[in-house]
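Listing 4. Sequential folding, example run.
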Amino acid sequence: MLTSTTLLFSTIESELKTLDKNLKTMVTAQHPVLYAAAEHLFNAGGKRLRPAIILLMAKATSNQILDHHKRLAEITEIIHTASLVHDDVLDDCSTRRGLKTVHNTFNTKIAVLAGDFLFAQSSWYLANLDNLHVVKTISKVIIDFAEGEVQQGSNYFNHNIYVQSYMEKSFYKTASLIAASCKSAYLLNIDDPNLSNYAYNYGKYLGLAFQMIDDILDIIGTEESLGKPVGLDLKNGNLTAPILFALIEEPKLISLIDREFSQLGDLELALHLIKRSNGIQQAKDMAFEYIQAALTCLRKLGSSEAIISLKQITHYIFTRLN
């Protein structure tokens, strides 16, 4: 975990350490290859941002983190990890978190099965929370993942899509899980529709901002910081907000996209054109608006040490661009 997030997560440090241990013991595949694939994923670690947000949201409801909240955090991370396995297969990504992806370490069939297995595991643990409302809320996320992948796959190299379509896809693929998990953290403690909806919208806006920032970093980041090649989304034809904004100023991008960056230097030229346009700044401005919307929702959830930590995490997410 990064030093900056370590400081932000200091109040739930012990819970996150337990979560890391539990994730490796929760995966109980009978077949050794499937088990090895799942273990490979969790050994790669990660910032554990989603479970941290859930644990803090749980703490905000009653100033304590109960066992079912801890299990919800673990379920969320398993679902997130399963989605990454399938994403890496679809995007043909060679590395994830600095390690070889599952389909590169094993093969594509094993990776798909590993992702399916993790989704199934998460569903089992979810059912055992014994809360029908939470089961329905989280189960919808898996449907959203599929919807998001279909939308993305149907629009590769399509420069005629609108930013709104991009935002819908971003909700399905990223924000839906964070939103549903935040809401569920409330539902496990307090059956209050208003508060749980504020929690849901906090996760929704935070997730949209997070995805947009990730998409900006895909253009302006480095392979070392990203853990994957720069411009991978663009190369694969996944046209994100900064690219869609840049198209208005840089029509040359259209011809590069139409030929799917097939000529030598096409991708590098496209990245240059995007960077010199206002596309990056427009995307930053939109991400900042979502960050502000998320903070507005947090203010509706009262004032506590956990809420303060969530505000700090929300600000931190935007500072990744600095």
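-- end of first protein; second protein begins --
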Amino acid sequence: MDTSALPSTASPRLPTWLPLLAAFFALYVIWGSTYLVIRLGVVHWPPLLMAGLRFLVAGLLMLGWLRWRGAPWPTLRETVAAGVIGILLLGFGNGGVTLAEHWGVTSGVAALSIATVPLFTLLFGLCWGQRNTGLEWAGIALGLLGIALLNLGETMSATPLGAAVILLAAAAWAFGSIWSRYLPLPKGAMASAVEMLVAGAGLLLVSWFSGERLQHWPALGGWLALGYLVVFGSLIAFSAYLYLLGRVRPAAATSYAYVNPVVAVLLGTLFAGERIGLAELLAMLVIVGAVVLIAVPQWRRH
């Protein structure tokens, strides 16, 4: 019997570019939108409590999924290393962003401040013997000018404590990112699961001892914000980041650093009535330009 005329039962294959497109969308738009969602969420939740719940729930979900897939438990040494990195990246990093937005820093300015992470990364890299190129030094100098311009703006000058906390958050994320390369972290996504669990538990402890308490049960908007941060911000977007790291050049995977601020500013303006002044606009152009300068040598190496 001639079967050549029969319809094929094989499932159609997706174009190879489609998963990449979806991953970049998650990295640019979803991560960029989390700054606005954090600002909406802290209206209903105490900031550290919300951040702690976000990472604890996301960590438990990821750990459960990994164990169901047969991933081994990390060793004690790996757990301690991942816990330290989790405290730096998620505790000080994301926790600091949440606090800063609670204290009045707008979502767009918060994202713009976190865009300075590549600048701090290059500076901290010097502690481990990393040598920077001329373009990278130019990017650092331009980025420091951008930070100065940013602090002249109305948002940051009106909330000096928030400005200090969010720059500390960027520095902590950068330091943890560099240090993580030299620590015995668990393999694959298990490192992320442990980092989120430890950071979530740590943030909840700090929340309790700092006196944060729920004054009333959060409204539906608060639960939706928390759910969005858990599912989209901490699971989908981070998984997309890991996916891209394994398939594209590092400079492409980390390009979110100069796309997220633009997305956050646009969303904050459209949906939260945020306004960005001339100083902040100039700072955004300068900082984005600085990060592009820093990325150029990475593109050349890879």
